[in-house]
Amino acid sequence: DQQVKQNSPSLSVQEGRISILNCDYTNSMFDYFLWYKKYPAEGPTFLISISSIKDKNEDGRFTVFLNKSAKHLSLHIVPSQPGDSAVYFCAALNAGNMLTFGGGTRLMVKP
Amino acid sequence: DAGVIQSPRHEVTEMGQEVTLRCKPISGHDYLFWYRQTMMRGLELLIYFNNNVPIDDSGMPEDRFSAKMPNASFSTLKIQPSEPRDSAVYFCASSLTGGEVKYGYTFGSGTRLTVV
Fold first, then answer.
1. Which residue of B has its CA nearest to A88?
2. Would you list the DSSP string of B18-62?
3. Chain A: nearest CA to B32, how far in angstroms?
4. CA pair distance B58, B86, nearest whole angstrom
């Protein structure tokens, strides 16, 4: 049973437009939610996170929104740049410091 | 710090051969994780250690897979015998208890394994 799901395996966006990546989870006990970014031939790297007690966290062009009632979070990238093209993983952290990952969404930003 | 270091970066082996993947976590980190990335399953946790002790190996797919952490600075993931379906990218990650949990884990660059 997948506790963290990313239902869109890929997303294509024009440069300068907004990219919205979505993630759903089933376990209401998660403490933190994180987004990782992964380029080819590299390991995932931390991008942005949000505490379960918040509903929004912003860092430059990246904003994560959390809707606890819907058990849904999203990552917004505005404006999107070609360098943002990567695979994005949503992850959830429980009280035991264990991360559960979604399946990833491949974002392609076209120039 | 050089980060989490994995070796080799690429491994091509024939079916039936033994494969050993290596990982050096960030110095001082007390958790070490082994993940496998595939198209079908995304990032799946295979096993993790705390203070060199294996805590949960329920993600290890079969008895052909084994992992060890003889000391705080080194871990291995072994597949014996290897099969073509083991082909994937294997990641090692580490983290620190009491650290900034909101940053999650630090991952290595991965080992791309191809079993032919």
1. B42
2. -EEEEEEPPTT--EEEEEEEETTTEEEEEEEEETTEEEE-TT--S
3. 11
4. 17
d(C-alpha B15, C-alpha A76), whole Å: 43
CB contact under 8 A, B107 and A43: yes
Reported as a pLDDT band with limits 50, 70 and 90, residue B25 is very high
User: For residue A79, is the peptide bond before it cis, meaning its omega torsion is within 30 degrees of 0?
Assistant: yes
**Which of B45, B103, B105, B106 to substitute to test the interface with A, most A CBs within 10 Å?**
B105
Based on DSSP, count helices (H) and strands (E) in chain A, helices before strands: 0, 11
User: Do the Cβ atoms of B110 and B11 come closer than 8 Å?
Assistant: no
Q: Is B90 exposed, middle or buried (0-12, 13-18, 19+ CB in 10 A)?
A: buried
pLDDT one-digit tens code per residue, A17-51: 999 999 999 988 898 999 999 999 899 999 999 99
Chains A and B form CB pairs within 8 A to the count of: 59
What's the angle, vertex CA B104, arms to CA B39 and CA B73, rounded to 5? 90
Residues in B closer than 8 angstroms to A103, CB to CB, are: 41-43
For residue range B68-87, list pLDDT tens digits in order: 999 999 999 999 999 999 99
Reading across the β-sheet that carries B65-71, which strands appear in turn? B5-7, B19-24, B74-79, B65-71
